Amino acid sequence: ASVEAATTKRFAFSPIEIATDATVHVPEGYTWEILARWGDPLFSDAPEFSHETGGDAVSDRIFGENTDGMELFEVGDKQLIAVNHEYLNPKLNLPQNEDGKPTSAADVLKMQNLQGVSVMEVAEGENGWNIVVDSPFNRRIHHNTPMRIAGPAAGHDLLKTAADPAGVEVLGTMNNCGSGKTPWGTYLTCEENFNGYFGSTDAAFEQTPGFKRYGIKGESRYDYEKFDDRYDLSKNPNEPNRFGYIVEIDPTDPESKPVKRTALGRFKHENAEVVIAKDGRVVVFLGDDERGEYLYRYVSNGVYQPGGDTENLLNEGTLYAAKFNADGRGEWLALTPETTGMDEIEIYVHTRMAASAVGATTMDRPEWVAANPIAVEAYCALTNNKNRGVKPNAGGDDTAANAVNPRDANNYGQIVRWRPANEDYTAIGFDWDLYVMCGNPNVHNDEYAGSSNVHPGNMFNSPDGMAFDTSGLLWIQTDGNYKNEGDFEGQGNNQMLVGDPVTGEIVRFMTVPYGAEVTGLCWSADRRSMFVGIQHPKAPFPDGEGKLARSAVVVVKREDGGIIG
Ligand code: FEO
Ligand code: CA
Ligand code: CA
Ligand code: CA
Predict the structure, then answer these.
(1) Counted domains in the chain
(2) CB-ligand 1 contact for 289 (6 Å cutoff)
(3) Rounded distance, CA 360 to CA 366, Å?
(4) How far apart (Å, rounded) are the C-alpha atoms in residues 362 and 465?
(5) ipTM
(6) What is the pLDDT of residues 230-240, one digit of tens each?
């Protein structure tokens, strides 16, 4: 099938075919190069990456593993990228240990250092884009970086620990997934699957309802708790209440202390899309990436004034969860003591329970939200849902199909879009529709074939990362099944596509190596370079056969030097 849908000429490139190979493909007239790989030095005292030992022991001096959300910042004529390192492959980083399980506190420290966030200066020179090694802006933020806790839950009993009896300071941010950027120039990093870092050394550990709802169990994913008491639920049961937040980082000040903004709720945060409503209030859209969980919105009490004090804009406001009705309308349900019957502060710690209490709409894994810069509308990628009808979410909510998540056994996902009443992002009401229902028209001829803007030449599954460019085109990144067989035959490796919100047309721009997802997207200051994250390749990318596969950020440019998007 032709990759061209042959409708508008909105796109400045010819769409590409699927790929199943071990490299990156972009359209004719475009080039790509590597900017940064897991293990690349941010400082000259760090050794070069070793394919024998994985990330180095001085791992807080190097680019971490599994790149995810990222944003670009300008400081004078310098450009900084803040970028997440979502998780870690223990087998790659602890190759000397059986199954990659840590056997010492030093192993745990190495794992903790290789995740979190990198801030790095980047520059384009004669040999392309590179990290500016030893830039004073370069910084690693990891699982042991001190952070301030701010907002309503700061100081609450649920956040107090022996090491922090006041409940106002925590070490580290973890499972940093998507990102956001504030108009005042700070980076938002989003804590997603934090539950997997905690475990119990006491077999008699019992899950509280709060632990159950967030998937916090006696068994952890990384065994930190065996060597670091902070992660041992039997010794520090409140420690996990200090994760699952949005964290604000000032990338322009390497001495600044990151701040956990509890007013934006605690759940498995995907990204944080910030818009300024027409009255100047700050609105943040937030997805909770789990089957049967919710889409959220935060609205500040205060108004953003350029150059003004921004400290309380993400501390004082109202949190809402989305309800989508079958008639194409929806509403934001405020999470307050009156609506939830919950303690005012607990709403910010057990936000999922609050959203269940008000009857928000259970969703097919809300991933990134992106707001259109040239129209008052926002989009959320609902990546997929294999458990529909098999089991309810951990709150026991009814997760049956509904208008906005209409398919059982939803292996392909969809993207929902909403337009607030009166073009006002603070309005309670909105209209919604499905921008795309992903599917496979080669394999199916029913609802699983996808919506009318899906055809054999552009099909994909599991939309995840999304961002708008300044011209109002929606870039869509996938994190899905890349086997290219069965239900997914003809869809190939994960990919990045571009959608026109007006016509609905979607075209394929990029494919990535086998096994990788595409996640994280930002542009250089002049918009002539695009930075794209490639996470968890299984193919030997980018260093070739026999070498460890390394997550990487690549730069895409036009050969004619033109603006991208
Ligand atoms: Fe880390 Fe939901 O993606
Ligand atoms: Ca994601
Ligand atoms: Ca995903
Ligand atoms: Ca991921």
Answers:
(1) 1
(2) yes
(3) 13
(4) 20
(5) 0.96
(6) 999 999 999 99
